[in-house]
Specification:
This protein has about 260 residues and is an alpha/beta fold. About 25% of the residues lie in helices and about 35% in strands.
Amino acid sequence: MEEQQKKILSHWSAYIYEQQEDEEDIVRCMRRLIGDEPRNILEVACGGGKLCLPLARAGHHVTGMDHDPAMLHYAQKKGADLPGLRLILGDMLTVPWHGGYDVVILGTNLLLNIETDWDYRQAQKQLIQRAADALKPGGMLILDFDCPDDLSPYAGDVEWLCFEGMDDQGTFGRYFVCGGSVNPRSRTVKSLRRYEITPKEGQPFTVTRQSVKHFPLLEEVCGWLYRAGFVVQSLGGGHHNQPFDEQHRRAVICARKD
């Protein structure tokens, strides 16, 4: 892909994501779990700031980290008036996280949306270990991710239109996830991500990317937490404090660092 196409796609993705994604339920859930007392918080993969900005406005000291400069541009623009906000550009698996945090958030389905060349399962484990290293003793890790028991819906000739729209530069695009193959033993899913982009000026282009993801079971994640020195304090099945059961498979875990 040409450099200009990369810039167009990056800008469009950041702009449309910010317009389409609604994080109100997640914000309310996180504020309930964190409480009102001011905390020193790290949000990993903060995107355009839909979670870290409300937390900063609520009086917390928040560090947001993301690898996408277009996303951080939106966060910086919207949070320019927030003295308690700090933003870091970098790969979450390699950039220093430093330490002393009261809360680390690996939210908004991050465990299933890591962009990396690492082995996916190892990357997931590494995020949990890095969270442990960054927290104060007694600090809290919040994990928020889909935890399906059955992976068969991801297999075969299926296609989901995740979002579409026009950005502020006149570029129209559509983003699809295309189903592929599932290995139920390793719980890995191979699929394609397809972007169909039509700039205001210039030729339309399509970008297709292969994705291989690991969908951990709840028991596996709890094992990673235990080995990293965490004690699970609560488990919910969604952002409305539902129980985690067969119908509610969005795992929201609060774990304390011993």
